[in-house]
Design brief:
heterodimer; A: 278 residues; alpha/beta; Rossmann fold; 6-stranded mixed β-sheet; 3-stranded antiparallel β-sheet; 21% strand; globular; B: 251 residues; mainly alpha; MetI-like fold; 11 helices; elongated
Chain lengths: 278, 251
Amino acid sequence: MRQDTRMKPESPGSQTVEPPAVRRQAPADAISLRGVGHSYGELETLAGIDLEAPPHGVLGLVGPSGCGKSTLLELVCGLREPSAGSIAVGDAVAAEARLGRCAYMPQRDLLLPWYSAIDNAGLALRNQGMGRREARAAASGLFERFGLAGFAAARPDELSGGMRQRVAFLRTLIAGKPVLALDEPFAALDAITRAEMQEWLAAALRVDPRTVLLVTHDVEEALYLCDRVAVLSARPARIAAELASPRPRAEDRDTAVTDPEFVAVREEAMRVLREGSR
Amino acid sequence: MMRRWLLPLALIALLLGLWQVAASTGAIANALTLEDFLVPSPAEIAEALWENRGLLAENAWVTLKEILLGILCALVVGVGMAVLMHRWRLLRDAAYPLIVASQTIPIAVISPILLVWFGYGIGPKILVVALVCFFPITVNALDGLRSVDPEALKMMRSLDASRWQRFRRVEAPAALPSLFTGIKIAVVFSPIAAVFAEWVGADAGLGRLIQSDIAYYEVARQFAAVAVLSAMALILIGLTALAERRVVTWR
């Protein structure tokens, strides 16, 4: 938090900093899950999951803790294979092929302490064969517009929680993949920073739409950021309900989330969640 | 700063002073009913150090070579083994218990055998130093490689990292602090190993010099050789700490 107060690019109402498009014509893939199940040995975590997300669609996954939301994300990203059913990301079906289509942002920011902020952000470019200097140049323009100006050379431990999360998101975005898989990206942040980051992510996705799979335990966050939200039941997780958000990624978050229609859908989601956790 | 340097230095000065008085007045020799020359004072040791500087430097150089080459061998083989065991689970399960078990064989038993096999030259000494250093380096390097957060590797895979890139950018840097812990332990034990190996049988080196000085009652020079050995070890430890600070900049 300590540096956030100095920068304030994301303060509510000031529309001065609009996050930039990384690759404006970023390809988009649809995501499709058919009867997906998964077990860790004897423990069945997911059963009969059917989900669809259109290209550029933002799909939220909420559910009780430990229900397998994160596993579902890893399955889509091709980091695991399901024990039942099939997953397609665009026309990619095999795990290796899905891995090439998805950029995964883990729960913790996992910035590598031996790299500066900008080198962390450019990791994917370096992995794709770009030289250090070119990767830095590619990331540096985005750094300014992502509210990280002046922090390119900073070590990760010199950044506030919100800034670390922004670098981690930039690292995911810059990979140029059609699908972003975000695992509770703001769970570790305090309430105020979290609300700011939600607005910031909404703005980033308005400018640079991608197909997004967002796992969260925060129903309000899911309904604010996503077009549709799938509510999962307790283990073995099934889809208990799928709800359409009334005002996804509205410019004014505070108004959007207090809108009666929004509140009604949120209460419905909470009801399903409570029933499903029993 | 003052506490860190001045206090230990003051204590050393005090102890040396006491020793000087006790030795030069013959108090220690009398108490132990010894001839005076068997209990040299710090001043006499300093004199022996200066008079024998050529001889001491010559032998110190031999011991230093044994230490450095021994550590280098252990580093190359140890880190290599750690990487291979990390990469292939089967190899780790097969070799790791053997590496641990090998540590139960006393180096005192191995050294004479190496002497018989390889003779009095520098070779077997390097081998003894390497054997002693191998264990802490290998075990700590492997620990470091295994300490990597699996989530970070998933993230890297999703960001198009090849196996080599994951090693180069995540696993290797993550293992460095632990590797340095191993190197520091190795550096502390390496002079002891080198001197011991020379003790068993050698044609040069500080350990060999100390041994022959005992036989010829050159007690002052013997103490001087010990002082040189300690100074050498301290410098090596200091250089390792310095290297660690230069390499592991994120801690």
